[in-house]
Write a structure and sequence with these properties.
homodimer; alpha/beta; Rossmann fold; 3 domains; 13 helices; DNA-binding; Peripla_BP_I (chains A, B); Peripla_BP/Lac1_sug-bd_dom (chains A, B); DNA-binding (chains A, B); transcription cis-regulatory region binding (chains A, B)
DNA sequence: ATGAAAGCGCTAACAA
DNA sequence: TTGTTAGCGCTTTCAT
């Protein structure tokens, strides 16, 4: 299937007996043009159904007005919120976005970076895959001075701007809340150890424990690769453990929900026998039963801020020095943790 | 912030004392080249950190290898599944995707079409906004012979390929199931009347009723604009109605879930007093309580099929005639409707 | 097996 | 106020 012919400036010029530059100027609404000529050209363009060729412009001005976005997966509500924020913001500022998903694969992520760079995106917004522990591909972007920033799944090893939430504090709020509800033995269910958010949220967990004078124990930290199978397996292992926890803080909501399913299936009362809190505030968490206590993470706003900052950098509206944006999280107490009626 | 310099073929050519055409041929692995020259060039390119400029290629060959995608919203699980399928497929076949969201606005959708066309996408995949009742912008694409196809939210007024599910049949399955469970008065909760899926699913609803010898009544059809407020309002109106339904088929899961919330809040037993079924099979539906009976709609596969078909058209692998892909849906019976233990 | 040259559609410095 | 010209980075036909 071949595309139909597209009208070019050249054709408009010919029809009107003017030069292409004049057409270009008229269509750009340049002031140094006779209003009459401008009018004729604009009208002719409209009548010929002229459509600007952004590709040609991009090549000429060495700017594509396209932002590349790489996320681990498109179907997670959190990431699609991010993208939504990025897309709306970019669009408002005259940019389009090109999207890739790494599917949590390091190799795929590297390939994504490559194609987006080849496509001449003006900048990139990246959220790292679970597998990414080596940052050479990012270092290369950095060395080649291709503007990019990271969000949510970031690394501190690369000196670029980052947009995250106060992961440690959010986790602290959740765990503190569980302790305030009377939990004595709170477990932390964590994703892969080297994930930035796994670490940060653990910090908050430990801080809350220590504040309540509870000695931390590695036996209360449960690690999963975040697949449903593993989540289930680890939860069952926890239930079978000698010193069964009476409260759980899960690193992300989907994990918390998997845990909840197992607890319910095993006939445990939530929150009476075991309280539960997550992190993200996915839509599901509000409607599940019992409703899930969680920490809200403003995905859409993160996307907006990330995109605006990157575009500000591109437009030299802000200094080039990397900046860190840390968004606030808030605790959303719900029934999965409320042991006390007044809480 | 300015981007760093990018190496071009010209520079490689100069360094090696060959012509640009030779470099181009080497990098394309053209057979009519001395293997030795080819090797030298490829190695030089690597050592100079050469990155292909897809933009320049696109302009030259009049193909961007980019697909444009327009969806009503990015954050819905169904649409992000579609996009995921489209992205994976496109990527595998050497294409990138550019994404826009219409935010359910007709004006925005028209603007999206315009920018994507300006960006010289090779083809478009479109799912219509709720507001779209006028198809001139699509007709223009059609007349300008820009390949595009529609998915999920389609219109029959434009002769292009479409990817949908058997909406009517899926709805029929759901309603039949409710009737088999003993419901006597089944209501249909519908989105905006002129939406393709509203109409199709109503067809299925009516068919099931007639098969069970139940006279259809417009008073059992409840219309909402799908906002949570309106959903709630309409549900309350239904509960207050004289002849209260004992079963509800909701056009999409999010609507079903809003309805469920109101029913639970009003103290109604689901499914005993009122049974409920949705359509889409969102992840939430499986974990909510009671779990929601629904019709599964393969979003990812729809995206794959849509993208593959469009690319097949672009590559002349299939005839240009519009084709309709109707994917099968299956009933997913869950607790929100199971009145009989053996069902 | 390789090079020269034209050109994709546009912009912008320079000329007139 | 408008035109001429060169060129963005690449591909491809036509020579050699």
């Amino acid at each position: 299937m071949k595309k139909g012919h597209q009208v070019t400036m050249k054709e408009i010029a010919k029809k009107l007996g003017v030069s292409v530059s004049t057409v270009s100027r008229a269509l750009k609404d340049s002031p140094e043009l006779h209003p009459e000529t401008k009018k004729r050209i604009v009208e002719m363009a409209k009548s010929m159904n002229y459509q600007y060729n952004l590709l040609a412009q991009s090549l000429r001005i060495s700017k594509s007005k396209v932002l590349g976005v790489i996320v681990p997966e498109l179907t997670s509500h959190f990431f699609s919120s991010n993208i939504s924020g990025i897309q709306d913001t970019a669009y408002k500022r005259g940019y389009n976005i090109m999207i890739c998903q790494s599917n949590e694969s390091f190799e795929q992520e590297k390939a994504n970076v490559r194609t987006l760079v080849s496509s001449q995106v003006d900048g990139l917004l990246i959220s790292l895959s679970r597998e990414t522990k080596n940052y050479e591909h990012l270092m290369e972007l950095y060395n080649r001075e291709i503007p990019f920033i990271m969000f949510d799944r970031v690394t501190e090893d690369i000196p670029v701007s980052k947009v995250t939430v106060d992961d440690a504090h959010g986790a602290y709020l959740a765990v503190k809340h569980l302790l305030e509800q009377g939990c004595k033995k709170v477990a932390y269910f964590s994703g892969p150890e080297d994930l930035y958010i796994s670490k940060k949220r653990k910090e908050g967990y430990l801080k809350a424990l220590s504040e309540f004078g509870i000695p931390a124990s590695e036996s209360k930290v449960y690690m999963t690769d975040l697949t449903s199978e593993k989540n289930r397996e680890v939860t069952l292992a926890m239930l079978a453990s000698e010193d069964r926890p009476d409260g759980i803080f899960a690193m992300i909501d989907p994990l918390a929900i998997d845990i909840m399913m197992v607890l319910k299936e095993q006939g445990l009362k939530i929150p009476e026998e075991i309280a539960l809190a997550g992190f993200t505030n996915n839509p599901t968490s509000a409607v599940i039963e019992p409703s899930l206590t969680t920490v809200s993470q403003p995905g859409y706003e993160m996307g907006q801020i990330a995109a605006n900052h990157l575009l500000d950098q591109l437009d030299d509206l802000v200094p080039d020095e990397p900046q860190s944006f840390v968004l606030l999280t808030t605790l959303v107490p719900r029934n999965s943790s409320k042991k006390k009626p007044n809480a």
